[in-house]
Specification:
Strand content: 5-15%
Strand order of the largest sheet: 1-2
Distance between the termini: 29 Å
Structural class: alpha+beta
Shape: globular
Order of helices and strands: HHEEHEEHHH
Largest sheet: 2 strands, antiparallel
Length: 178
């Protein structure tokens, strides 16, 4: 099968629509049959798209995650009103910034040095699912950059996702399929 037309289309997305970069992968039965990367993984066009680079995926994984979460709800292993801290204890002491201007562009995420107060309510699973948790989704946020720096550039979405998946399996006693 030829992917020439797809490659040609992908290569013109930046010119036609301003897409700074992309990584398109087609798989069949767990095998990669096509992969094309081009452009940059950041809007400032500093970092080329590559197999190991971090990039904002925003809600691309939300569909699969929500299907899996709702299956756990159906099985009685997860409740939408459960506190996230029940599964991820680090979320038990969430703080909120005293001052935060959401309209400022670019967004300047607060860090630990700025005044804050304990969050008024506990973060629940439904908050994560509806993107109302108040968590930043920016890879440039100070805590994410600190983790990347502390790990010598090895901390990334993949590492965090694998750790979260492991902890989720443990919390819900889910056995990975062979």
């Amino acid at each position: 099968m030829s992917f020439d037309h797809l490659t040609e289309y992908l290569d013109q997305l930046e010119t036609r629509y301003g897409v700074p970069g992309l990584d398109c992968k087609v798989m069949k039965v767990y095998q990669t049959v096509f992969r094309h990367m081009c452009g940059y993984r950041d809007a400032k066009r500093r970092f080329p798209v590559g197999e190991t680079g971090l990039c904002d995926v925003y809600c691309c994984t939300k569909i699969m995650t929500m299907v899996a979460a709702m299956q756990l709800v159906e099985q009685g292993k997860l409740r939408l009103d459960d506190e996230v801290a029940a599964y991820l204890p680090e979320f038990g002491s969430v703080r909120a910034a005293d001052v935060f201007d959401m309209l400022q562009r670019p967004v300047s995420w607060p860090d630990e040095s700025q005044p804050s107060h304990p969050a008024r309510s506990k973060m629940c699973d439904i908050d994560l699912m509806t993107m109302t948790s108040g968590m930043p989704d920016q890879l440039e946020a100070a805590p994410i950059q600190q983790a990347v720096k502390a790990s010598g550039g090895q901390a990334g979405a993949g590492n965090g996702a694998h750790d979260l998946a492991r902890r989720t399996r443990e919390a819900f006693d889910i056995q990975p399929e062979p």
